[in-house]
Design brief:
heterotrimer; A alpha/beta; B alpha/beta; C alpha/beta; A: alpha/beta; Rossmann fold; 8-stranded mixed beta sheet; 6-stranded mixed beta sheet; 14 helices; 16 strands; B: alpha/beta; two-stranded antiparallel sheet; 9 helices; 10 strands
Chain lengths: 394, 288, 416
């Protein structure tokens, strides 16, 4: 799309972001509320020469996306809660094969079919823990159509750089919100590292340095005749069934993210220096939180604002550092408590944690967050998460 | 002045009237399929306490919410698997899976194949409207070649599934196809299918004025009925390989398969009888 | 209620954990198993299939794990106590329908014999890396109960308990065992039926027209089953007390709030009744080893080695891992110097321990990727380190294991 200002919905901006990032394969299965991404992408398909496939279910979708990625295409899928649950097995495969790809989860009310047309933040922990076995993941949380565009590009860059599936955790409200989206002239793109050596010497999982390095890739069909497997494998990609190989194979999946956490983690902060209370929020909730912060500042309360842009890996250091300076974190989420547990963990008892659940299916009222902020000033130190009661809670 | 008598819908006893009006669009064929189903229940004089409807997700998936029977609205693609559990959990029940083509043939295709192969005693009413309607008109495994959908904006290139042929190949004992226009024949087919022990499939070709017809500019529900009237050909026992549906061409309807195969529960009981002597008696109590 | 003598194979056996669990399921009154073969859980499925005809149960091998869990939820609504058996990859496939089970408040049991992951990983070797998945693996908000047995005997006992809990709270209960426990052969004593407490399904018996499946004032209402003439309707969509989805935005918000809130509340308000812990020497302990499943047995050796050196070590074994014993950990954190958490993964439950410790005690993680159990030396060294460390350290301290040094610090050859 031409550089300049466009009026796009979040979902459309996501499709444009993907195209701008060089995504040339989209695999999907229809699900509300993520459809507009597909429709937008499809319209542009012939023009950009991209491939599109609608598979028979979400299980096969992610499998197809992983396959496409190994052909050298930047590949993506979009889905929502139930589809995301079905993708869990292949998310693990993507991690194990260190396959770059992007999954956009436009979250809706859950569990199960829940509320297809309402926003939610109920899949946050699932993104990190939803597949079996140990792995680390990168997840981004946009809060506007502009960020849907920017973060989709960022997701591709991170995924290509670290050879890992990256999840964009949007929600229905952001997906269906229409706003101005500025498309810049120049967009910085990162591409995967290709192996350039001799064909018969290629080792698909050879790391330099041994623990945290990112192995180089090759595309299928170039005569490298390599093998990859979801089984525990050595640097040749061949399965070996023992504890030594497990340590060799799986620990780097963790370490390549954990050791690079400072490079990956990104957050936005405002007025945290003198703050007594910090509101920690992400996604659509952060926009309400900003409003609440303004209201509370007017009342003379020193409120700061912290928004993880990259939610996984969690900005542990920042939260730990702030917790030592402030009285309480206020954490509003559209769920019954997920990221708040991470905040509680990293705060290490240094300050209070106040959780503001939401009437599911709706974003918070700013007053609810303001009340929680006021509560944070008064409340004595406690060793548990303090839950705010929401007015129409039954 | 005589008091105005409250009008009672003839199907009231079979529908959840507290859930009406339903969500289907004007001109949609799913309502007709439900009427055919409820009429079939009346004809069958079935014990309604023992009839159970399981749906997946989608427009047709909502059927379970409107029929006054034990009804389950399950996950996408899994109604047949869910129903298998119900049928085996309580073999006395009459189990009907009522769902759409995307739910049963695409995401649930695997379960469809295997339930047919096992010949689980259930009736699958598959409403085929050629499109994913609930999500806004995406290409379905049944979308005819060249038809437009939101995810085939330049026309569909995928060869569609032939549901009766798939059902026959997998082992279904009863396979029929009717359109939403053939309401009496459809009703009779459902009656037969439900009486038939084993895996029976009734495909209902249905109009989707809001998506399929609108995107392809085929007119409204009535136009589709006219199309069915002019283009459907009744050919009983037609070999199922001839039953492909081309875009806006003739639709062959009728009863194609009616054969006998032992059902899963029959085989299971028979087998259990045969191997009875092999089953060890409860173990003797050993000293601990 | 006591178990039905027909279902209980009383006696002393020399069997593995998988088989023991299958016998436990039978004793608890399980009448339906929908399974799909997956190493290393297949023995449990096979054992139940062999016994099914004696106890009048049905077993079916479905076409995949999605099918097996869906059939289990279906069977549960047909009035049968039901169970499925799987391992990591199958467990991942079940995630969508575990959400459905939670949403419909269906009692059923999932036995997960964990193996090394992620993906296909190590099919024949052990792991404990699905612990967080059992709590967070499906989308949306819900709560479940997770039990981690550590011996074939416990596989029997806690399978019975799992059924009881699931009937009592109408929620999915996961038995998160692992390959070691599953394939470990030991003496298992199955008591006579009158010594086995079994929670029967609670059925609604009132007026047919007055049945409300999800009353607002009762978090765990009695159930009905398909075929009893109640004409119930259930949906995975957000629903009201009648079980009907509501489509207008306002009313939907209200119902979702009431009806998903209950999914978490019925567990969160009853945590004290659900949680089971096994403690050893924690009263005057300086260091506490928090472990679960097979690792708790390996930890005993490490603890003994440390005690021989005069270190005051206690052991806290999580029998129920979810809901997490938050209060207990917070209470202990105020008394001890450090928690040592050995797990066959690279850190899962340790995050929960860290969360609940409130910065009051050091947290030492002893990670192990899987494929085998810990070397007790590693646990011992971690305890030794924890006893020496004087100041409180921010965050988790990771103990470098022998295996780590072997692979990443020495020139170890994986293959010839």
């Amino acid at each position: 799309m031409k550089a300049g200002t466009h009026r796009l919905s979040g979902n459309e901006a996501c499709a444009e972001g993907a195209i701008a990032a060089g995504c040339r394969f989209l695999g999907v299965y229809p699900i509300v509320p993520a459809l507009e991404v597909v429709e937008r992408f499809l319209k542009r398909c012939p023009e950009i020469g991209a491939t599109f496939v609608q598979m028979e279910d979400e299980i096969s979708v992610l499998a197809a996306v992983l396959g496409a990625s190994w052909t050298g295409k930047k590949a993506m899928t979009v889905t929502s809660g139930p589809g995301f649950s079905l993708m869990m097995e292949h998310l693990g495969l993507g991690v194990m094969l260190e396959t770059p790809c992007v999954i956009v989860d436009v979250q809706r009310g859950g569990p199960s079919e829940g509320m297809p047309n309402s926003p939610s933040q109920g899949d946050m922990m699932q993104a990190r823990w939803g597949s079996h076995g140990d792995y680390e993941i990168v997840a981004l949380c946009p809060n506007s159509p502009q960020e849907m565009f920017d973060f989709t590009i960022k997701a591709f860059n991170l995924s290509e750089k670290y050879r890992i599936p990256v999840v964009v955790m949007a929600d229905e409200a952001v997906g269906h919100m229409t706003d101005n989206v500025v498309i810049p002239n120049k967009i910085e793109l990162v591409s995967r590292k290709y192996y350039k050596g001799k064909k018969d010497k290629y080792l698909p999982f050879l790391r330099e340095p041994a623990l945290t390095g990112i192995p180089s890739m090759v595309d299928i069909g170039n005569g490298y005749k390599f093998h990859v497997t979801g089984l525990t494998h050595d640097e040749r990609g061949y399965p070996i069934m023992n504890a030594e190989c497990q340590e060799f194979c799986v620990r780097p999946l963790m370490e390549k993210i954990r050791k690079n956490v400072d490079e990956i983690v990104e957050f936005e902060e405002k007025d945290t220096n003198n703050a007594e209370i910090v509101v920690l929020s992400y996604g659509i909730t952060s926009r309400v939180a900003e409003k609440a912060m303004d209201l509370a500042t007017k009342d003379g309360i020193k409120v700061g604002f912290l928004r993880p842009i990259v939610v996984w890996p969690f900005p542990e250091k920042k939260v730990r550092e702030l917790s030592k300076k402030i009285k309480a974190f206020v954490v509003p989420e559209i769920n019954y408590g997920q990221i708040v547990y991470e905040v509680e963990r990293c705060a290490g008892g240094n300050c209070n944690i106040i959780f503001v659940p939401s009437k599911s299916g709706a974003v918070h009222e700013p007053e609810e967050i303001v009340n929680a902020i006021k509560m944070g000033i008064k409340e004595e130190k406690r060793e548990e998460v303090i839950q705010v009661k929401i007015s129409n809670q039954q | 002045m005589a008091k105005k008598k409250k009008e009672i819908h003839p199907m009231e006893s079979l529908l959840r009237m507290d859930r009406i009006p339903h969500i289907w669009c004007p001109g949609c064929g799913i309502g007709t399929a439900v009427t055919a189903f409820t009429s079939a229940l009346e004809k069958l004089k079935a014990d309604l306490n023992k009839v159970c409807v399981i749906s997946g997700i989608g427009c047709t998936g909502r059927v379970a919410g409107y029929v006054k029977l034990d009804s389950f609205h399950t996950t996408h693609g899994r109604p047949i698997a869910f129903a298998t559990g119900i049928k085996l959990g309580d073999p006395e029940l009459k189990v009907v899976v009522f769902s759409g083509d995307g739910d049963i043939i695409a995401i649930g295709g695997n379960h469809f194949m295997h339930a047919a192969r096992r010949n689980i005693d259930m009736t699958v009413i598959c409403v085929n409207n050629f499109i994913y309607a609930m999500t806004g008109g995406q290409v379905a495994p049944t979308t005819p070649l060249t038809a437009y959908t939101t995810t085939s904006p330049y026309g569909n290139v995928e060869v569609p599934s032939n549901i009766p042929q798939l059902a026959e190949a997998c082992g279904a004992v009863y396979v029929a196809r009717w359109t939403a226009l053939h309401i009496r024949r459809l009703t009779n087919a459902i009656v037969e299918a439900m009486q038939k022990p084993g895996f029976s499939v009734v495909e209902v070709i249905s109009s989707c004025p809001q998506y399929y017809s609108r995107i392809n500019k085929l007119g409204d529900g009535l136009d589709m009925m006219k199309f069915y009237h002019d283009n459907s050909v009744i050919r009983h026992n037609e070999p199922t390989e001839n039953l492909d549906i081309d875009y806006q061409k003739q639709i062959i309807v009728g009863k194609f398969i009616d054969r006998e195969r032992p059902t899963y529960m029959d085989s299971y009981k028979k087998w259990l009888e045969e191997v009875k002597h092999q089953i060890p008696k409860s173990p003797k109590i050993q000293n601990t | 209620m006591r178990a039905n003598p027909k279902d209980v194979f009383t006696g002393a056996y020399y069997i593995d954990g998988d088989v023991s669990s299958a016998y436990g399921a039978a004793a608890a009154g399980c009448k339906f198993i929908g399974g799909y073969p997956i190493t290393p859980s297949t023995e449990a499925f096979e054992a139940f299939v062999r016994r099914a005809h004696q106890v009048g149960a049905i077993s079916i091998q479905m076409e995949d794990e999605l099918g097996s869990i869906a059939s289990v939820i279906g069977a549960s609504w047909a009035g049968k106590k039901a169970m499925t058996i799987t391992s990591g990859p199958g467990f991942s496939l079940m995630m969508e329908n575990i959400g459905l089970g939670a949403m419909l408040e269906t009692p059923f049991v999932v036995l997960n014999i964990q193996r090394g992951g992620p993906s296909t990983g190590l099919p024949t070797l052990t792991g404990q890396a699905d612990m967080m998945q059992s709590r967070w693996g499906s989308h949306g908000d819900y709560e479940i109960i997770t039990i981690a047995p550590d011996s074939p005997q416990e596989m029997f006992d806690y399978t019975v308990k799992a059924f009881n809990l699931s009937e009592k709270y109408r929620c999915p209960v996961m038995i998160m065992s692992d390959e070691c426990v599953g394939h470990m052969t030991e003496k298992v004593v199955i008591p006579s039926a009158d010594k086995i407490e079994v929670e029967p399904r609670r059925f609604y018996k009132g007026d047919k027209d007055k049945y409300i499946p999800f009353p607002v004032d009762n978090l765990v209402p009695p159930m009905v089953k398909a075929g009893d003439g109640y004409k119930l309707h259930l949906t995975g969509l957000a629903h009201d007390e009648k079980g009907y989805p509501l489509l207008t935005q306002n009313s939907k918000v209200k119902t979702q709030n009431a009806n998903t809130r209950r999914l978490v509340d019925k567990i969160r308000l009853n945590v004290d009744k659900i949680i089971e812990l096994k403690e050893d020497g924690i009263d005057d302990a300086e260091i506490i080893v928090v472990s679960y499943g097979i690792t708790s047995r390996v930890a005993i050796r490490g603890i003994e080695m440390a005690r021989a050196k005069g270190i005051k070590v206690g052991s806290l074994r999580l029998v129920t891992v979810w809901p997490f014993p938050e209060k207990k950990i917070t209470e202990l954190a105020n008394k001890v110097k450090a928690f040592v958490v050995p797990e066959i993964n690279y850190g899962q439950i340790v995050f929960e321990v860290e969360r609940c410790a409130y910065g009051k005690a050091n947290i030492v993680l002893v990670p192990h990727g899987g494929g085998s159990v810990h070397n007790p030396d590693d646990i011992f060294h971690a305890i030794e380190y924890a006893a020496k460390e004087r100041k409180n350290v921010d965050g988790i301290i990771e103990q470098k294991t022998n295996l780590y040094s072997l692979i990443f610090e020495k020139e170890y050859k994986l293959h010839g």
